[in-house]
């Protein structure tokens, strides 16, 4: 396992980048702690795979360094970094059996056959392929081949890091859940440093100790699932995490009060005067329908999600989402909404603003 340091790291696919906009990965400084499980989360094209490929050595960064336990490996080839990487689409040896595919990384490093057999059996059980060990990979479907790729990535215990680039894309939904559980168990049992790239928030939040949210080539927040939910540092984090995502509403903020089209919204903390694009953000879970208090809304439709209802509404011409309990009433006279003041975040130019006083812990 290794502590991975990203030092002044950035990358452009252009030969002569002239501005920040030319960089697919904008400047990044961060330490990935030894033994932690991270998820790189963001929409397609945000720079996730670029960053992963720099860590693995498949891509040389335009600037900066990458260090493993303090050792500069920026120019070291992939083989010298002692990492295992699993790609989005399966990479297997078609002419080999499942057993030989799984055994290959261990045999390549001279491990004795007794250990190889034991470890292969353990991994085959983990990925649900014990009864297929003697089958050739050539005749298997894409999901089975990807399970082999996952197994081959996990078979070694001595790697510095395990890197996963959207590895469950071709796996059926039921098996996805099982494999995520097995990956979590592997991390718990052996303490590998793991980095998992995905655009699926459920995968990220259920897998990782810390989630790295990327937007437009930039890391906009690194935090636990709870931190991302409670205090999104960027409006994109609020929008991307949660279903539905955070309501972001243009507002004027003065002290402990926000004003939306002149209507007051109480805040739990005091804020200094703000300039630029000012907005408040509140998650649908912390919005409540009211008969007489709060902002005016028009309910457009109600979606029954089983344990709760998602209410789609409009507030001063802007879409707003409300999550209410399964048994909470929704009546025609409920034409206003209130916000839990302690759960309202304030943003200026898309970045969360810290209050000057009174922020709840």
From TrEMBL:
Keyword Membrane on this protein? yes
Source species, domain of life: Bacteria
Q: List, alphabetically, the Gene3D superfamilies matched.
A: 2.40.50.100, Nucleic acid-binding proteins (2.40.50.140), P-loop containing nucleotide triphosphate hydrolases (3.40.50.300)
Residues in ABC transporter domain copies: 4-241
Q: Which SUPFAM superfamilies match?
A: MOP-like, P-loop containing nucleoside triphosphate hydrolases
Q: Which GO terms describe its cellular component?
A: ATP-binding cassette (ABC) transporter complex, substrate-binding subunit-containing
Show the PROSITE patterns listed in the entry: ABC_TRANSPORTER_2
So where does this one cross the membrane? none
List the CDD domains hit by this protein, alphabetically: ABC_Carb_Solutes_like (cd03259)
Recite the UniProt keywords alphabetically.
ATP-binding, Cell membrane, Membrane, Nucleotide-binding, Transport
An example of a GO molecular function for this protein is: ATP binding
Instruction: Please name the InterPro entries in this protein's record.
Output: AAA+_ATPase, ABC_transporter-like_ATP-bd, ABC_transpr_FbpC, ABC_transpr_MalK/UgpC-like, Mo/tungstate-bd_C_term_dom, NA-bd_OB-fold, OB_MalK-like, P-loop_NTPase
Identify its protein family: Belongs to the ABC transporter superfamily.
| Official protein name in the record | Carbohydrate ABC transporter ATP-binding protein, CUT1 family
Q: Which organism is it from?
A: Celeribacter halophilus
């Amino acid at each position: 396992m290794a502590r991975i340091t990203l030092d002044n790291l950035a990358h452009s696919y252009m030969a002569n980048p002239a501005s920040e906009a030319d960089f697919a990965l904008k400047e990044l400084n961060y330490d990935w702690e030894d033994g932690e499980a991270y998820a790189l989360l963001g929409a397609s094209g945000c720079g996730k795979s670029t960053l992963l490929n720099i860590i693995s050595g498949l891509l040389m960064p335009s600037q900066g360094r990458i260090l493993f336990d303090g050792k500069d490996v920026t120019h070291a080839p992939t083989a010298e970094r002692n990492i295992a990487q699993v790609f989005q689409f399966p990479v297997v040896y078609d002419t080999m059996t499942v057993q030989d595919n799984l055994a290959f990384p261990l045999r390549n490093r001279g491990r004795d056959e007794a250990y190889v057999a034991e470890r292969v059996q353990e991994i085959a059980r983990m990925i649900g392929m014990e009864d297929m060990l003697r089958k050739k990979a050539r005749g298997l479907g894409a999901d089975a081949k990807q399970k082999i790729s996952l197994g081959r990535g996990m078979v070694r215990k001595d790697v510095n890091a395990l890197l996963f680039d959207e590895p469950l894309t071709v796996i059926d939904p039921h098996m996805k859940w099982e494999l995520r559980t097995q990956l979590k168990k592997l991390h718990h049992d052996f303490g590998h440093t793991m980095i998992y790239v995905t655009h699926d928030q459920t995968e990220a939040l259920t897998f990782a100790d810390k989630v790295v949210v990327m937007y437009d080539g930039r890391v906009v927040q690194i935090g636990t699932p709870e931190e991302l939910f409670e205090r999104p540092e960027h409006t994109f984090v609020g929008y991307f995490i949660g279903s539905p995502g955070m309501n972001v509403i243009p507002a004027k903020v003065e002290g402990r009060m926000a004003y939306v089209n002149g209507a007051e919204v109480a805040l739990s903390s005091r804020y200094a005067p703000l300039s630029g694009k000012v907005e408040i953000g509140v998650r649908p879970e912390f919005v409540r329908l009211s008969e007489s208090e709060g902002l005016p809304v028009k309910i457009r439709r109600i979606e029954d999600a089983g344990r709760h209802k998602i209410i789609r509404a409009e507030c001063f011409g802007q879409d707003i989402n409300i999550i209410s309990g399964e048994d909470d009433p929704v009546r025609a006279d409920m034409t206003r909404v209130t916000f839990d003041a302690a759960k309202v975040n304030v943003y200026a130019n898309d970045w969360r603003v810290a209050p000057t006083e009174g922020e709840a812990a």
